[in-house]
């Protein structure tokens, strides 16, 4: 596959963004190329387009499969494995969110739960546990919210996101009403 300057710019940028989302730059570039390709790509296609070794491509494909971001395709008469993005862009976002939560949030919550079960040995640990409890509560709240979001169909998620900034204004309005009191 030959990349146009526009596609190349996006693929390289996506690689940089991927490193912030939890997978390395090369894996991000590979995924971007697969997402943007109209046709399934094989390891050779990825290796040539991105100028990376087949070994690196193989490891990257395994990583993307562990994130459940790829769908394997077979082409009749061809022994190579071909890959496309698994699902829609919304599916990708949900899988990345799920995976990040599994790899980052859940272990942190587990550590916090274990730590909070222990009695503090001194005032310093008591203060530290208060802060850890706040972190735990925030992560639990976010995790519960994420659970709700992950069960919503994409159309409802879009609607919710569009309501986002408007909801801030509604909350400000209700705060003003509550400050006036019931007799105002």
TrEMBL record:
Sorted UniProt keywords: DNA-binding, Transcription, Transcription regulation
HTH marR-type domain ranges (all copies): 22-80
Superkingdom to which the source organism belongs: Bacteria
SUPFAM superfamilies linked to this entry: Winged helix' DNA-binding domain (SSF46785)
Database matches in CDD domains: HTH_ARSR
GO terms assigned for molecular function: DNA binding; DNA-binding transcription factor activity
Family: Belongs to the GbsR family.
Name assigned to this protein: HTH-type transcriptional regulator
Record organism: Pseudoteredinibacter isoporae
Upper lineage: Bacteria, Pseudomonadati, Pseudomonadota, Gammaproteobacteria, Cellvibrionales
